[in-house]
Amino acid sequence: MWRIIIADDQKSFRIGLRKALEVGSAGIIIVDVSGASELINHLRSPLKTDLVIVGSRLLPAGDPTYLGALKRAAGAARLLLVVPHASADLFQDALSLGFHGLIIRRQRHEEMIEAIRTTLDGRLYAPNAILSVKPPEAASAMRQPERGRSV
């Protein structure tokens, strides 16, 4: 049985994701919280947490120690960050901060469930919006031949 904490300041997001999880998966305990300190308190519970889904707005910008406290309290739990939009750079930043992937707030619930399953399986998750961005085409290594001038 998995225990998942959904921590976000938007009640509608928490409710929507909870409903999608309840329909799409059996054997899941879901806890939803709306504040940063409430999240830490739930993580300190004696119940093992497997996954924490954290809204980026819950990470206090003015408190550089919060992220460390969150990771210590989370222990072995996997972490997904909920963001309003995503990019490859933001994905790399999230990984370097200890998150295991990103969920974009506007993603379809099916994609969010895929993110959750992927993360619970021990893998990193990158949203399709990041993966579908094509890199600019490399310039041809060969220079076009110059045309000679006739005199």
UniProtKB/TrEMBL annotation:
It comes from the Bacteria. InterPro entries: CheY-like_superfamily, Sig_transdc_resp-reg_receiver. PROSITE patterns: RESPONSE_REGULATORY (PS50110). Residues 3-120 form the Response regulatory domain. This is Response regulatory domain-containing protein. The lineage of its organism: Bacteria, Pseudomonadati, Pseudomonadota, Alphaproteobacteria, Hyphomicrobiales.
